[in-house]
Amino acid sequence: MAEAQNSPKSSTSLGQGGPPPVGSTTAGSIAVAAESTVVSRMSAPPSFDVADFPVPHGREEEWRFTPLERLRGLHDGTAVATGDGLKVDVQAPEGVTVEAVGRDDARLGKAGTPVDRIAAQAYSAFEKAGVITVPKETVLTEPIRIAVHGEGGTAFAHQVIELGAFAEAVVVIDHTGDAVLAAGVDYVLGDGAKLTVVSVQDWDDKAVHIAQHNALVGRDASFKSVVVTFGGDVVRLHPRVTYAGPGGEAELFGLYFTDAGQHQEHRLLVTHNVPHCKSNVVYKGALQGDGAHAVWIGDVLIEAAAEGTDTYEMNRNLVLTDGARVDSVPNLEIETGEIVGAGHASATGRFDDEQLFYLMARGIPAEEARRLVVRGFFAELVQQIGVDDIEQRLLEKIDEELETVSGPGR
């Protein structure tokens, strides 16, 4: 497995020098992609107005990996919402408020602003936004479950999840069915709050899902995001984190399994804008089949005011067959030397036949040995979910995916 990493501990602006990250990988060959700075990734400043963003042509830094021709018009304004686009069902424990609000509601947009044309289009085109509020000092013992089911049409959506001070909650957002969906999701954490979000993308084969996730983490608050992506023709998610006060912590975990012909893209940005906050990013993916394409962009910006920052990000990819491609680009931009630590790593490799041989030599059949190796690769992320039925479903889904491969390294 090829790996690149960098762990600056002093005053540094990363992006020049140091070991390069593993960039674009296809089975049998590895090419290195140059790092680019955080600020150069966007062709236009954040805005709620679609007109402020040019129609992308695919040569922009933030769109160069994305197959625009497969976005079904979400990027150029030709996509139009249809009445049969989406069904959303929310199950919330007692004490939680669930509302549908208009665009003029003051709670919308607090966590972040759209950073590309599709995100702005999603914000401009939804009819009603969902707002889920957990009152201060409320500790939920059961998850909030949001079931998002596509019914074959096109939809634009926006969801806000807000926790009051010292509240604690787990939220599961489950995407299934077939849809063309552009969405925004905002997480707003009050001081001392704790929020875990599990977002599952288990779409049918033809679905297109483009979304920006914004998290605003309050003073001494803790935010954990677990993104699980399996289905869909094109899935492009953009998680972003900023901090509203010192002492905030953010953990971003991701697991994706990319099959033949699928495009799965995860673009992350953590902005350390206040002192003494932490972030940890771990995303892992497995790929199999011709045309399987996974993209991971991990950006961390440590602003000059963010002294005492402690951050690390890692992406690992396991290529199970020929014909799959990975683009992995980590980037750190550091504007102050007064930090606790900052580092990143990117690794991509083929399926380890030695591990398979070791297990088979001890009497384990080949298919079961292969399943154990891949489960072991994902084990630490599965444990982060913390919702038993989702964990079990995930393991079953991994097994289903592996059944489609005829043999190791093929």
TrEMBL record:
<dbReference type="Pfam" id="PF01458">
    <property type="entry name" value="SUFBD_core"/>
</dbReference>
<feature type="region of interest" description="Disordered">
    <location>
        <begin position="1"/>
        <end position="29"/>
    </location>
</feature>
<comment type="similarity">
    <text>Belongs to the iron-sulfur cluster assembly SufBD family.</text>
</comment>
<dbReference type="InterPro" id="IPR011542">
    <property type="entry name" value="SUF_FeS_clus_asmbl_SufD"/>
</dbReference>
<dbReference type="InterPro" id="IPR000825">
    <property type="entry name" value="SUF_FeS_clus_asmbl_SufBD_core"/>
</dbReference>
<dbReference type="InterPro" id="IPR037284">
    <property type="entry name" value="SUF_FeS_clus_asmbl_SufBD_sf"/>
</dbReference>
<dbReference type="InterPro" id="IPR055346">
    <property type="entry name" value="Fe-S_cluster_assembly_SufBD"/>
</dbReference>
<feature type="domain" description="SUF system FeS cluster assembly SufBD core">
    <location>
        <begin position="150"/>
        <end position="377"/>
    </location>
</feature>
<feature type="compositionally biased region" description="Polar residues">
    <location>
        <begin position="1"/>
        <end position="14"/>
    </location>
</feature>
<protein>
    <submittedName>
        <fullName>Fe-S cluster assembly protein SufD</fullName>
    </submittedName>
</protein>
